[in-house]
């Protein structure tokens, strides 16, 4: 109760200050249609993430794009048309994120995802070469090894069950595999999440997105001080944060000491041997930058934490939705298995090479179609701070507005994807993409602030799915209606009830 009263007080103050400071902007943005609001509480207080998903869809249908939604004292203009997001995302100004990112900043600080202006430009320029495909290919052995662990764990599970096939929820298996991959590639450290899922670091990471998402949609948790000191969830959250920061700091120290010991700290050229090159983690590139004075220790930690956050739940979500769709579409699954077998041959012990994965064009179409229907990052925000944005049809978004971009609604637009609810990977065969609006498919966002890790993500998704399809056949037990009804929307699109499949060994 006391939290609610405090929230009402602060919200009232913010509301009054805002209206007095930006009277013109308030008038300009109020011309957009939207659902009715309750003073201070806004449009709605969602009781769960599922409500948010459904509400955004419902209102987009009722009020069109864009529509105005209020959450507590702040408001959001939600945009869901490719033609309208283009002018927002493609410019080199208006690169600031929205208010929801504040909640992930407690972990990530001002890393690449959350930084703005010159700080962001500087970081992006420095980090872009690190995601070059030649460097990413050196991570393929890690992706392969961890995928093999995943296959072994699932195989054991399948063998241990009774004669009749029992459905298995793939999500915890895939999430831990993705966590192992991102940890080893970004920090050079094996955390063995797949075999030791209860370590405090792994638990902290697994809980983080859930808590951050909860806070973004529950205004009475918005004050860090009140949340972290006066609620059990907040205290636990603070403890997890300390563990996570401590873990990354320790790895940085160990890695720096090891670099110094083997003399790597004094060289900035190509590593001496292939073996040393293959052992490099993203952190090593950051430590080289630190040595040149481009990053401080804290900035190295912020970037590594950003890769950890952006780089595991997202790929796990992509793989989980893909498996679900393959398990609903046996013909497509069979075609995929034929493609993989024809490229890799009958020997199931070899790991796929980068060239072989590159040859798997149908797998790529399937992953893209899955990302279209279930984008792992379904929603992003921008704050218009530099100049108003003209989104066409005489509509101008004024400075000061926070814009929510529903990637999910953009990608289910029947004008660009006929029968948008149908899983049809052929939409991504090269000739079928000709003439499509460049922003109609944007799972990695678009424009200068698009995902820096998209090649990494595609390589990882392809590798894990290739291992899974080579060894198992899936049959999904849940239908579309249930899955669509229970997906949760915010930082990452999750199947909240899991992806339940019957697995058969091939
Ligand atoms: C399927 C997997 C992935 C999807 C769908 C995805 C999607 C996205 C999206 C939509 C954004 C824009 C966010 C925004 O504007 O607020 C983004 C940004 C970013 N992503 Fe990813 N991502 C994925 C995997 C990864 C991986 C594996 C990494 C790193 C290893 C990564 C690192 C980043 C970073 C650092 C940013 C911030 C870029 C910037 O602002 O300059 N992502 N991602």
TrEMBL record:
One of its GO terms (molecular function) is oxidoreductase activity, acting on paired donors, with incorporation or reduction of molecular oxygen. It holds the Pfam family p450. It comes from Plectus sambesii. It is found in: Endoplasmic reticulum membrane. This is Cytochrome P450. GO terms for cellular component: endoplasmic reticulum membrane. Its main location: endoplasmic reticulum. Belongs to the cytochrome P450 family. Its cofactor is heme. InterPro entries: Cyt_P450, Cyt_P450_CS, Cyt_P450_E_grp-I, Cyt_P450_sf, Cytochrome_P450_Monoox. Keywords: Endoplasmic reticulum, Heme, Iron, Membrane, Metal-binding, Monooxygenase, Oxidoreductase. Heme binds at residue 451. PANTHER family: CYTOCHROME P450 4C3-RELATED, CYTOCHROME P450 FAMILY 4. Signal peptide: none annotated.
